Prior knowledge:
single chain, alpha+beta, Spore Coat Polysaccharide Biosynthesis Protein SpsA, Chain A, Jelly Rolls, 2 domains, nine-stranded mixed beta sheet, eight-stranded antiparallel beta sheet
Amino acid sequence: MQAVILAGxxxxxxxxxxxxxxxxxxxxxxxxxxxxxxxxxxxxxxxPVLCVLGYQAEEVRRVIGDRAEVLVNERYAETNSLYxxxxxxxxxxxxxxxxxxxxxxxxxxxDRLLEESGSVVAYDSTSSRGREQTKVAIKRRRVADxxxxxxxxxxxxxxxxxxxxxxxxxxxxxxxxxxLIRDGHEKAWVIEATRVAxxxxxxxxxxxxxxxxAEIDFPHDLDVARREVWPAxxxxxxxxxxxxxxxxxxxLTLVAxxxxxxxxxxxxxxxxxxxxxxxxxxxxRSAVRIEHDGKTQRWWELPLGHPGIxxxxxxxxxxxxRLVLPDSVADGLxxxxxxxxxxxxxxxxxxxxxxxxxxxxxxxVVGDRDRIRLSLPPxxxxxxxxxxxxxxxxxxxxxxxPEEREN
Length: 407
């Protein structure tokens, strides 16, 4: 199963928020949008992938690296997505997934698409009212029509911009694209070729209502993607990866503990060890102090999207976190914290912060403390912590490791 990502656009309606970056490079959760798409495709075994680029093609190529092949639409400023697809016609040689690069989606939506046989369009039945939306008309599961000009009353939902074509559907789509381009419709959207194809071959609709996604056209869409869609996606997205990593190191830790226990029982020369916890500084981040239960504690402050790194030498560590709450909000703030170990994703938590009235912090009101426990292979590790999403801009963090001493 091949995949084509159409990523040639400028994203002019987002320019005030992107500092001139292409739309596909806007960051969500600290990563460019197109990398989220490439990762989802790779996780589902879809490939090879072709990215059709245009605006700032070299910058996008640098970000993509070797994750995908690249084709450049040199005429991106005077053409549109249909022309970009037409340029890829020789590369496509069988069934393929087609994606618009401004789509941010839960990977489970791709699951649904790939599970269906034949050619399919992902649509959301809860969204079909906007003038800018590409609407879908469905009759007995088959796409009867698709386009922005459909009357909302006849539409069953909004197309996400994620489609899968079998060999027959792909041939029909590319033939329609070729006909439209040769007829002078270089500024047409790719959905116009889909509209022609669905009248010729069966293309079915897959309703993904209830799954988180966002088409990012305007600054408001980007804000929703960062504050609402990303926290909902993050947990499910990394669950399998985190689970096997956590399980693997937990199993190794249990074996190590069992061996240590046997050795302790067999020996009368060494007494049992008690454990104190020491705080490890976060490199490059500002240390602050809070007062809790009459004691002063040292924590480190992290701005949203800027990770902190602590170096530990241990097989276990604890990450403690407190959200710094906005002045106008005291309770119930949702946020997402990501943890990496040696540069690889390890864990994340989608949490809710309520004000902790037992803590005094000169920098504002802080939320109650949450903990993320890490089981690690013995040795030195770099622990990365980052506030990746939420309705607050700062996080207090401290990383702790055990300090053993004999009684």
